[in-house]
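Why does residue order matter? Because the sequence determines the fold. Keep that principle in mind as you read this record.
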Amino acid sequence: MHLDHGTAYPERHTHSAGPRRADGSRRALRIGLGGPVGSGKTATVAALCRALRAELSMAVVTNDIYTREDAEFLLREAVLPPERITAVETGACPHTAIRDDISANLEAVEELEEAHRQTAPLDLILVESGGDNLTATFSRGLVDAQIFVIDVAGGDDIPRKGGPGVTTADLLVVNKTDLAPHVGSDLDRMARDAAEQRGGLPVTFQSLRGPDGVAPVAAWVRERLAAWSVR
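Structure:
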């Protein structure tokens, strides 16, 4: 069981959108990526696109408050064709558009699906939140699974601090492990604290500069997609 932190977090929509459209056809699996500013969300999205694009039909929705910066980064890196990348300008705190009023993101997701439905129906849509804090979570009416990204440069006490992003995400990613010796972060301590906070939910450590890169996260995405395909 997850730890009871004794804190009242903002309520969020928890209803789950069904896996099939009104006509009975299966829609894409939607995975949200959240985490603090600078934790490596966009770099993780880019790496996932490179790792999975040859085997999956996929698209990305990014969120920024007033810009399209994350989407423009993905476009410059050519991780997917331009028509498979779209941006939402939230105009407010990032969590608002992924948890409280998901209409703009839901519209972006559905437009991407419709645009590719006749030619190459989407298998996977990644929805990246703007940089937020440890309370950031996605509405289950928007995404089917959630990844939360933290990084070792933020301090090795981040897993111990908890918050719903850390404790309830379907996958916790501890990023930039290559920086640990330079910033004094204890990876073993982070692993222990994360395991204690998450009550059995998976945790993975990654360095996108390392030989394995995003491979563990990509493997987790494949597992989720395999489970989705039989629903």
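Residues 215-229 form the longest helix (15 residues).
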